[in-house]
Specification:
The chain is built from eleven helices and 32 strands. It has 651 residues and is an alpha+beta fold. The strands form six sheets. Strands 1, 2, 4, 12, 15, 16, 17 and 18 form an eight-stranded mixed β-sheet that branches. The chain has a six-stranded mixed β-sheet with strand order 24-21-20-28-31-30, with no helix packed on it. It has a five-stranded antiparallel β-sheet with strand order 9-8-7-6-10.
Length: 651
C-alpha cells in the first residue's frame, strides 16, 4: 500500500507539472525587460521594471539551464513599500528518481528483454496467430537461430516462456504478429506510469517562475538576475579609400535573444570581457545517497536525556534602508530616449549604405560614412570594456539582430605580410591598423572594402585605444619571398684570464637572407616577420620596426618590378667563469666538448701550466725545508731533556 501511494503521488505531481508547462507560453509579463548587459562568458544581466497593483502574481519563463543562473542571482524589490511574499517555480525531479518510485525496476532506456524480465510473474494472454496462451511470464531470452545445413547464423529471435495455470510451460516466439496482453490492472497501470514518465522527459523544457507581490495601490516592481545567453559576436567593416582620406572602421555586434521574452526598447550594453561564471544545477532536486546499515540481532534502545540550553545566538536585522531604496528606484527608472543618429535605424542601418546601395563616387561614399555618429559610448569597467548603445533596441524572442557599436576614422597602412614559418613564398595582403578611436575593439572578424569592392576577410584580437596591429585579409600574388641561411653563421669563443679568473665567452651567430620581388606596377611595403628563438637576440643593423612576443618585424620597401633584400643577424651569447686555481684536465674536457680546439686551448694555457709547475716545485722545496726544521727542533728538544737529566752530576 505504501508503494501504491508513492506512485499515485508521483503521477499527481507529474500531471501538475505538465499542466503548469501547458500554460500559455506567450503570456505577457507585467515586468518587462528594461536593461540588458551581455558578457563574453555566456551570461547576461537582465533588469525588469514594471507596475503591479495590490496583491499580484507575476510570471517569468526560463529554461532549466537559465533557471539555474537565475536562482543564484535573483534580486526582487518592491520599490514603493510593498513586499515579495513568495517566489515559486515548477520543480522537475530527475527521471531516475521518478522511475525509482515505481514498482517496475526499469531504466529510461530499457529494451524489450529488460521490459519482460521486469514483469516476470505477471499474468498475460499471448496471441500468436490463431493460438492463444494464458499464464504467468516465467522468462524471456534471446537466442540465435541457425540454419539446418552449414550451421550459419541466420537471425536472433526472442522467446517468451509462459507457465499456465494447469502447469503447462510453453515457449512462444515474439514476432511482429505476436501480441501480449496484460491481464492484471495493476500491471497495466504500472506500465502506463512508466511510459508517462519517460514521455514527460522529452517535453518542452519550460520553467515558470512566479513572484507573489503583496501591498496596496499601484507600485513599481524591480527584478534583476543573470541568465545563460549566447555569446555576442563582434564584426567589423574596414573601408580603405584612395588618396588622403582616412579609412573608416565600422563595428557591429551580433546579439541573440533566447530568454523567451521580447526585448522592447531595452537599454542594451555589451561588455568586452568574460567575468567568471559557472553552472550549478540548483534548480534540480537532489537526493543524498544514505548508507544502508543492517540492524543487529538484538536491538535495545535506552532512554536518553539532553542538556538544557545555555546560550542563544542573537537575531540579525534584515530591514532595507529607505534612502537606499529610493536611490535604487531613481537608478532603475528608464532613461529618456536620446536623439536618433543620422543614417542609422532606417533602411537597414549604416551597413546598407556601405555595402548595399554603393554611391558611384568613392568620395561621396566616404563622406556619407564619415558623418555617421558613433553608435555606442564606451567606458572601462576594470579589466572589462562596455559598449553602451545610445538608442534603445527591440529584439523579439528567438530572434537575432545586428546592432552598431562603432563608426570612427582610423589609421591604416596598406602592406604585405610574410612569415618565415608560414611555409609559402607568397605573402598576405594586409593593413597596419592603429586604433585611433576612443573605444577598445573587441576581438572578432572583419571585412575589408577596397576601391569600392570586397578585398577579403580576416580575424583580429582585442585592441586598446592607440594600439597598433597587423591585420591580414588575402593573398598577395604579385610578391614572392625567399629566405635562406646566410654566410655569417658560426661559433665564436673568447677566453680572458685576469686576477686568477678565466672568463670563457661563447657566442653563436646566425644570419638569414630574405629576397623579395615585386611584380606589380605599384610599389609594395613588405613586412617580414622573423621568428625569435629563446635566448637569441637580433642585431640592430637593420633594426626591426617592432617586435612581438615571438617575431621581429622588419619593413622592406619594394619598388615596382624590382627586388629587395634583407639580412637579419642573430646572436646567442653566454659567459662561463672558472677559477684558475681549480683548472684541471676535467675543465679542459668540458671546454673541448663545447667546441674549443683542444690543441689551441692547451697552447693558450701553457703559461698557466708552466707557472703551476713552478708553484708545485716551490711547494715541494718549502715542504722539504719545513721537514728539516721539524727534525732540528726535535733534536734540540732531545738535547734539552738530556741536559736536564744530567744537571748536578759529573757527566
Amino acid at each position: 500500500m505504501r508503494i501504491r501511494l508513492a506512485v499515485t503521488s508521483l503521477i499527481v505531481l507529474a500531471v501538475a507539472g505538465a499542466a503548469a508547462q501547458q500554460r500559455p507560453a506567450n503570456e505577457a509579463s507585467p515586468v518587462p525587460v528594461r536593461r540588458v548587459i551581455l558578457y563574453k562568458s555566456g551570461v547576461g544581466y537582465f533588469e525588469h521594471l514594471g507596475s503591479v497593483t495590490g496583491n499580484a502574481d507575476v510570471a517569468i519563463q526560463f529554461t532549466t539551464a537559465q533557471l539555474n543562473d537565475v536562482l543564484q542571482s535573483l534580486t526582487t524589490i518592491d520599490l514603493d513599500g510593498g513586499s515579495i511574499a513568495n517566489i515559486s517555480y515548477n520543480s522537475i525531479a530527475p527521471i531516475e528518481q521518478r522511475l525509482s518510485a515505481l514498482r517496475l525496476p526499469l531504466a529510461a532506456d530499457a529494451d524489450r528483454l529488460q521490459f519482460y524480465n521486469a514483469l516476470r510473474g505477471a499474468r498475460v494472454e499471448v496471441h500468436a496467430g490463431t493460438t492463444v496462451t494464458s499464464g504467468r511470464i516465467l522468462a524471456v531470452e534471446q537466442r540465435n537461430r541457425t540454419a539446418a545445413a552449414g550451421g550459419t547464423t541466420v537471425e536472433a529471435v526472442t522467446e517468451l516462456t509462459v507457465a499456465s495455470d494447469d502447469g503447462a510451460v510453453r515457449t512462444i516466439e515474439l514476432t511482429s504478429s505476436t501480441s501480449v496482453h496484460f491481464l492484471d490492472r495493476d500491471v497495466r497501470d504500472d506500465v502506463a506510469s512508466y511510459l508517462g514518465i519517460v514521455a514527460s522527459s522529452r517535453g518542452e523544457d519550460v520553467r515558470r517562475m512566479t513572484l507573489s507581490a503583496s501591498g496596496t495601490g499601484t507600485r513599481r516592481l524591480f527584478v534583476s538576475y543573470i541568465s545563460e545567453v549566447p555569446i555576442w559576436k563582434s564584426t567589423y567593416r574596414l573601408v580603405l579609400p584612395d588618396g588622403a582620406v582616412k579609412p573608416v572602421l565600422q563595428g557591429w555586434a551580433i546579439v541573440d535573444n533566447t530568454i523567451g521574452q521580447d526585448w522592447a526598447n531595452v537599454e542594451l550594453s555589451l561588455v568586452a570581457g568574460a567575468p567568471q561564471s559557472f553552472v550549478q544545477q540548483i534548480s534540480q532536486p537532489y537526493y543524498a545517497r544514505r548508507p544502508v546499515v543492517p540492524l543487529p540481532q538484538t536491538v535495545q534502545l535506552r532512554p536518553q536525556t539532553h542538556g538544557a540550553t545555555l546560550t542563544t545566538s542573537g537575531a540579525a536585522s534584515d530591514a532595507l534602508d529607505a534612502v537606499s531604496r529610493d536611490a535604487l528606484a531613481q537608478k532603475m527608472a528608464p532613461a529618456p530616449p536620446a536623439e536618433r543618429m543620422a543614417g542609422l535605424g532606417r533602411g537597414g542601418g549604416a551597413a546598407g549604405g556601405v555595402v548595399g546601395g554603393m554611391p558611384e563616387a568613392a568620395g561621396s561614399m566616404m563622406e556619407a560614412i564619415r558623418v555617421v555618429d558613433a553608435a555606442a559610448t564606451g567606458q572601462e569597467l576594470g579589466d572589462l570594456f562596455e559598449y553602451k548603445l545610445k538608442q534603445p533596441v527591440t529584439i523579439r524572442k528567438n530572434e537575432s539582430a545586428l546592432v552598431p557599436i562603432l563608426n570612427a576614422e582610423v589609421e591604416a597602412e596598406r602592406i604585405s605580410i610574410w612569415s618565415r614559418g608560414a611555409g609559402s613564398g607568397r605573402p598576405l595582403r594586409g593593413v597596419w591598423l592603429t586604433n585611433t578611436s576612443a573605444l577598445t575593439l573587441d576581438g572578432g572578424s572583419f571585412t575589408v572594402i577596397d576601391a569600392n569592392a570586397f578585398a577579403g576577410e580576416g580575424l583580429v584580437e582585442s585592441m586598446k585605444p592607440g594600439e597598433k596591429r597587423l591585420m591580414s585579409y588575402g593573398a598577395d600574388l604579385a610578391v614572392l619571398v625567399k629566405a635562406v641561411p646566410g654566410d655569417g653563421s658560426g661559433h665564436v669563443t673568447k677566453m680572458v684570464a685576469k686576477d686568477g679568473v678565466l672568463t670563457v665567452s661563447q657566442e653563436d651567430r646566425a644570419t638569414w637572407k630574405y629576397t623579395a620581388r615585386n611584380e606589380d606596377t605599384v610599389a609594395r611595403t613588405l613586412v617580414i616577420e622573423h621568428p625569435l628563438r629563446t635566448g637569441w637576440s637580433v642585431g640592430t643593423d637593420p633594426a626591426p620596426a617592432e617586435t612581438s612576443a615571438n617575431a621581429a618585424r622588419y619593413r622592406l620597401n619594394l619598388p615596382s618590378k624590382q627586388e629587395g633584400t634583407l639580412t637579419v643577424t642573430e646572436r646567442h651569447a653566454g659567459d662561463t667563469v672558472y677559477r684558475l686555481a681549480d683548472f684541471n684536465d676535467r675543465t679542459i674536457a668540458v671546454l673541448v666538448r663545447g667546441g674549443i680546439n683542444e690543441a689551441a686551448l692547451r697552447r693558450a694555457l701553457q703559461p698557466l701550466t708552466d707557472k703551476r709547475a713552478e708553484l708545485a716545485a716551490a711547494d715541494a722545496r718549502l715542504s722539504a725545508i719545513n721537514g728539516q726544521i721539524t727534525e732540528i727542533g726535535k733534536d734540540q728538544e732531545r738535547v734539552r731533556e738530556n741536559m736536564k737529566a744530567l744537571r748536578g752530576s759529573a757527566e
